[in-house]
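Box S1 | Example of a co-folding query
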Amino acid sequence: MKRHILVLAVLAILMAIVGATKVRYDNYKVFKIRTKSLEQQKLIENLAKESKSFNLWHSGKGEVHIMVSPQKFIQLQNYTQTFNLPLEVMVSNVQSLIDGEQISKATDNAHTFGWTRYYPLSAIEAFLDDILAKYPDVTSHIDIGTSYERRKIRGIKISYKEGNPGIFIESNIHAREWITSATATWLINELLTSTDANVRKLAENHDWYIVPVLNVDGFAYTHTTDRMWRKTRQPVNFSPCIGADPNRNYNSHWMENNGASSNPCDETYAGTHPFSEPEVKALADYVTSIKERLNIMLAFHSYSQVLLSPHGWTKELPTNFDHLMAVAKAYSDAVLQLPYKTKYTYGTSSDAMYFASGATNDWAYSEQGIRLSYTIEFRDTGRFGFILPPIQILPHCEDTIAGLLALVDKADELGYLKVKYA
Ligand code: 0X9
Ligand code: ZN
Ligand code: ZN
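Box S1 (continued) | Returned holo structure for zinc ion
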């Protein structure tokens, strides 16, 4: 009995220590700032770089979202007043969103995987093991590689027959974008269990390669320590800052046109060299090894509700721009028809969002010859941003499968699903 009390006491102390090290965002706010030019957009982006008290949530044509600590609120106010930019509160207390996100955890059964709450990496891995055991004939494990902190990066292949065109899905390369791995795991389950005739065709007539969590270290860190972490967790020599932006680390026009930062403390730090991040190198090596089998590359991100095609590093249009837009439009149109009326826009990354070099979809397009390649930014447009409430997971997944059905149909119609190997 005494021993039990001792164990409990030690546990309580340990939990206090772990709890104490969790980054809190009490009274942090997210502001929407409407910008009228690229100069103004850059102005706010640069402010976000200057201090840990600011963090860029989104930047795009006409709109920048910036998270601010309560201490720095006045500074932001002064700054934006100088440039005559109105501030609009989008999130009034980030910590309450984070707390709200956890509520369903208490009520939902932690022992069965599902899509009414978010799960840590261990549960996602258990889900994959479960699926592999249940569907051994059509699924296989993909060993993508090992992360900096020596976690396994796992993927799954779903293939019902020989000779299918291939679709690759990279997800959760940015640690805080939890809706992406929730969607990827849902999609895996849906492809295997749906009885809908259209989904069955989608599942069985294509080979699916899905990596639910690429940035495993960062993802684990968002669960244990800092919900708003974006980058990898590899330390940088001679810098107090940790991690690089894995979506700036691919060997494709790396660091060109200010599409990434050379400052290790920035959220878009490109890394010391292309593929400096083991997670990115591992994914690139795997994709390269099967590129002849791939017709479509999708990188799941959040948020903004937009499909982004190449290029991110130049405003020059890709050669099959019209087709890329037609396929994106098909996704957008299909999603809009659902009762949720979720509106997705589309465009090239550099035009619809900002310059970004060394990103997955550009690398897949330019270096691997995968002619349909998108970054898809999921829900929402900023009301909750990265902390999308669990109640929206399933509706969002419905959006996604409707979008994918239309995207793949259009791709087929335009001749993009011809098998390249054989
Ligand atoms: O900046 C990014 O990496 C992506 N947006 S996010 O808010 N999820 O971080 C957009 C990348 C799009 N650009 C290219 N694919 N080049
Ligand atoms: Zn170049
Ligand atoms: Zn992202």
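The mean pLDDT is 94. The chain has two domains: 29-100, 113-413.
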